[in-house]
Every structure is written in structure tokens, then in C-alpha cells.
Design a protein that fits this description.
This protein is of the alpha/beta class. The protein has helices at residues 57-68, 80-94, 109-122, 149-170, 204-226, 244-247, 258-270, 292-295, 297-311, 321-326; strands at 12-13, 23-24, 30-31, 48-51, 72-77, 99-103, 128-131, 175-180, 231-237, 281-283, 286-288. A 9-stranded mixed beta sheet has the order 2-6-5-4-7-8-9-10-11, sandwiched between helices. The protein has a two-stranded antiparallel sheet with strand order 1-3. The longest helix has 23 residues, at 204-226. The chain binds NADP nicotinamide-adenine-dinucleotide phosphate.
């Protein structure tokens, strides 16, 4: 069971719907991690959870399931109109008044940084970060900086957002980072480093698979860095799920509904069974080995270095914002 310290529970007001910048909170959200009687919330499962890419597919189903469990769910999307529609739909479907909406295009690094800042302004901690957003690009496109779009969205944005949210995750009593990878990473036999990150020699499936190999390699390095802290990082393949991402690659025939993929994400985000698990890769809700390449220390190091290079991050600190403020 996750517990939170009663001395770290000030009221937090989220932004108003339609607010300026990258955030559009649904309404003022009062998030207090103690119940109305002031009882220490030992047995409360209520968490503050960001689900990136929750305007569609697996992320939306994950957000719906988490909202039904009573969590504060921070929805995220790139299109404000679509986001508002999903927000209203999920409020209606779940009866939750604990949803907020944040808008940021993750292929644009300034917006990734803005998203983290807006969340940091609205909440003093984050219990779970689900890096779910992802794309499959049949045709090559580039993001700002010339980085190929799949790699920019699936890998670089995840690296940067996680880095920028670490202070708020660290301020949680016990935080989880859940990175959505894919079984597609197994198709990568070797990485053509010269082709990254522009992917001038473009193969859509290849670019997608390399981006997900990067996610698993990154999660491994991150988990190692988080050892001995109150945070864990794991990654997963959600299954073959009928979403628009899958349909950009193949027909959705025979694929499972988004709710099945959401079960995997919710499991890693909230199940007590995995509260102490760190640095693992799951297919469905079962831990398994990723490809040997994903575990290769040289591959891990190269992806990590590339993440630093492409984002301009000089180093990682796992100190919380609270610690930094009081030191
Ligand atoms: N479906 C599968 O079979 C399968 C298998 C393995 C792994 N996965 C992974 O599962 C995750 C969810 O994918 P899905 O299948 O649910 O796909 P999806 O239905 O297309 O949903 C993807 C989500 O990511 C958002 N997104 C995409 N690009 C973005 C950007 N630049 N900035 C901000 N948000 C962005 C989308 O926003 P919009 O609503 O605006 O499009 C949407 O909310 C992805 O990481 C994917 O790689 C899926």
C-alpha cells in the first residue's frame, strides 16, 4: 500500500479550464492527501497520476480506469479541442471531479518543458507518470531541430519530460514512472547510430522499433539511477491493441480493445504487486526479458547520451523540489 507523509499535504489548486499556457485544468482541483477527518491516509489509494497521450486509444482508456478508481488524473493531449471533449466525456463516464487537462505537443521540446512547468505550478507532487503518448509515422516527418518525428515523440520527449518531472515525483511519498514501449523493439537487430536522430534513411516500422528500444534502454538506466530513492521506473508492451496508431501500421483486425492495453498500464501504475519492482519490462502484466540489445550497457549509454545531447540536459538530479528548496 502506498502511503504519504501527512506533513507534505498542503492544498493544491490546479489551473482553471482554459487557462493560459500549456495547461487547461478542468476547474479548481483541491488535492489533499489526507481525508476529511484529518486521518493519515494509510489505506487511501488516491494518487496524482499524469497519463500522457490520454486523448485517444490506450491512454484514454487508462485515464478512464484510473478516474474510476478515484485517482486525480492529469489528462494530456496535443489538441485543446479534442482534449476538452475527452475531458468532458471522462467526467461524464466516471463521475469524477478530479480530472485536469494539460495541452502540449510533445514533439516540440519547449512545449514538453512547458508541460512539466505547468504541472509543477499546479501540483506540489506527482505520484505516477505514465509516459504513454506515442506515434507511428508511415511517412517521414521531422520535429523542430530536425529530429525525426517518431523518435522525437516516442523517445526524446519521454526522456525530457521525465527529467523535468523528477522533482515532483521525488516529492511524492512513493512514485512510479511507467514508460510505454513496444514488443516491436525485438525486431531491431542492431542500431544504425549514424542514421539517428534524423532517420534520413527512413523505414516507418524501423524508426518506431528503434524509438521503443530507446524507451526500454532509457528505463533501464533510469531505474538504476533511482535505486535507493522513493521512485521506480518500469516499462511495458501493452499488447496488440486496436487504436489509430496500430491502424496507421496495419489493420486492427484481431487486435484487443484499448481497455486491455489499459489494464497493463493501470497494473504498473497502481498495483501493490509491483510497488517495489524497478527496472523491469512487462508484456501484458507479466515481467519478462526485453531483447538482449535493450539490456546492452553500450546501447543504454548511447541512448542516454543521445537524450542528453538532443535536449541540452546537463545532468540528472533525483533530489525533490522540496529538498532543493530547504537545502
Ligand atoms: N496500439 C498498439 O497495438 C500498441 C502496441 C505497442 C505499443 N503501443 C504504444 O502505446 C501507446 C499508446 O498508443 P495507442 O495505440 O493508444 O495510440 P493512439 O490511439 O494513437 O494514442 C496516442 C496518444 O498519443 C498522443 N500523441 C501522439 N503524438 C503526440 C504529440 N506529438 N504530442 C502530444 N500527444 C501526442 C495522441 O494524441 P491525439 O489524440 O492528438 O492523436 C494520443 O492521445 C504508444 O506509446 C504506442 O507506441 C501501442
Amino acid at each position: 500500500m502506498w502511503c504519504s507523509s501527512p506533513d507534505t499535504d498542503p492544498l493544491i489548486a490546479a489551473r482553471m479550464r482554459g487557462g493560459s499556457g500549456a495547461v487547461a485544468g478542468t476547474h479548481t482541483v483541491r488535492h489533499k492527501r489526507s481525508n476529511r477527518d484529518g486521518v493519515h491516509p494509510d489505506c487511501m489509494a488516491e494518487q496524482t497520476i499524469l497519463v500522457t497521450g490520454s486523448t485517444d486509444g490506450i491512454g484514454k482508456a487508462t485515464a478512464r480506469a484510473l478516474a474510476r478508481q478515484g485517482h486525480h488524473v492529469l489528462l494530456h493531449g496535443r489538441d485543446r479541442g479534442k482534449g476538452r471533449t475527452v475531458l468532458e466525456e471522462l467526467e461524464e463516464a466516471t463521475g469524477s471531479d478530479r480530472l485536469a487537462l494539460f495541452i502540449a505537443d510533445l514533439s516540440v521540446q519547449e512545449q514538453v518543458r512547458g508541460l512539466a512547468e505547468e504541472i509543477g505550478e499546479a501540483y506540489d507532487h506527482l505520484d505516477v507518470l505514465i509516459n504513454n503518448a506515442g506515434v507511428y509515422m508511415p511517412e517521414r516527418k521531422t520535429a523542430p531541430g530536425g529530429i525525426e518525428m517518431t523518435f522525437a515523440t516516442n523517445y526524446v520527449a519521454q526522456f525530457l519530460l521525465t527529467h523535468d518531472l523528477i522533482p515532483y515525483l521525488s516529492a511524492s511519498g512513493r512514485a512510479r514512472i511507467v514508460n510505454v514501449a513496444s514488443i516491436a523493439h525485438r525486431s531491431v537487430r542492431s542500431v544504425d547510430w549514424e542514421n539517428l536522430p534524423e532517420f534520413d534513411d527512413y523505414d516507418a516500422y524501423g524508426a518506431y522499433a528503434v524509438s521503443k528500444l530507446g524507451v526500454i534502454a532509457f528505463t533501464g538506466g533510469l531505474a538504476r539511477m533511482l535505486e535507493g530513492t522513493s521512485m521506480t521506473a518500469n516499462c511495458l508492451h501493452p499488447g496488440v491493441i486496436d487504436t489509430k496508431l496500430l491502424r496507421a501500421y496495419t489493420s486492427g483486425a484481431g487486435a484487443a480493445p484499448p481497455e486491455r492495453g489499459a489494464e497493463v498500464e493501470v497494473h504498473l501504475a497502481t498495483s501493490p504487486d509491483v510497488s517495489m519492482v524497478n527496472g523491469k519490462y512487462f508484456e501484458a502484466t507479466r515481467w519478462t526479458h526485453p531483447s538482449p540489445l535493450a539490456l546492452d550497457p553500450v546501447v543504454r549509454e548511447r541512448f542516454w547520451e543521445m537524450g542528453l545531447d538532443l535536449t541540452g540536459i546537463e545532468g540528472w538530479s533525483v533530489k525533490s523540489r522540496r529538498q532543493e528548496m530547504t537545502v
